[in-house]
Specification:
By secondary structure, the protein is α+β, with helices and mostly antiparallel strands. The protein is built from 6 helices and 6 strands. It folds into 2 domains: 85 residues, Ubiquitin-like (UB roll); 94 residues, Helix Hairpins, CATH 1.10.287.1080. Helix content is 44%, strand content 17%. A 4-stranded mixed beta sheet has the order 2-1-6-5, covered by helices on one side. The chain has a two-stranded antiparallel ribbon with strand order 3-4.
């Protein structure tokens, strides 16, 4: 582990901190830390930054509830920037988006599409808060939980049929349909992807512990 005294803070006593989701690798935000906020971050295991505009420390989530639980902090090769991997409780941006990086500047059209379950969830949430005429997603939200649950049941059956038939292509198609409807259900019920990640992580930890106990 590197001694934080070896880190290179700028003339204002600050160091840039890139924050990313530890589970997805998605970059969430860029903020700044001074020695005090870095110390608080490491002590509380919650991101604490230094606001250059307000000239004060701020613990992320203290007001909004959108805390970022720190998993790992890594310095770059020059020791003048930090990469902070977190388990976020909610949106990173004050605008309410999962990531602060939402404004495309350049795209050559041949690179990564940018698709992710997180970005899909954001789009689906938009269809719930701002109804779009002709949108199937908005239609589902308008019909409510019973309609959504019915579709989840129907798509589950389609997955079983395709899987039983041994048709990989059709099974992938039906799983995609089921996934979409499950995401709609999650939004309707206020369930986030992070809720699911945490549940899976807790099961992984328990499973790993059981295996270790069997080996002893």
């Amino acid at each position: 582990m590197i001694d934080i005294e070896k880190l290179k803070f700028d003339s204002d006593g600050l160091i840039p901190a890139i924050v990313k989701d530890a589970a997805t690798g998605k970059v969430l935000t860029l903020a700044y830390m001074n020695r005090e906020s870095l110390g608080i971050t490491m002590e509380k295991k919650l991101t604490c930054f230094y606001s250059r505009s307000r000239q004060c420390l701020w613990l992320k989530g203290e007001t909004s509830g959108n805390y970022q639980h720190v998993k790992k902090i890594t310095a770059d090769c020059d020791l003048d920037a930090l990469l902070i991997e977190v388990d976020p409780e909610g949106p990173a941006c004050h605008c309410g988006t999962f990531s602060c990086f939402t404004n495309p500047v350049f795209d050559d059209g041949n690179g990564v599409s940018g698709f992710s379950l997180d970005s899909l969830m954001e789009m689906l949430k938009g269809r719930k808060t701002e109804k779009v005429e002709g949108s199937y997603t908005s239609y589902l939200f308008e019909k409510g939980i019973d309609k959504i649950l019915k579709k989840v049941g129907e798509e589950s059956t389609e997955v079983i049929i395709a899987g039983k038939a041994g048709d990989k292509k059709d099974t992938v198609y039906e799983i995609a349909d089921l996934t979409y409807h499950v995401l709609v259900l999650m939004i309707e019920m206020g369930i986030s992807l992070e809720d699911i990640r945490r549940e899976l992580e807790s099961r992984h930890v328990i499973d790993k512990k059981v295996k270790q106990e069997k080996m002893t």
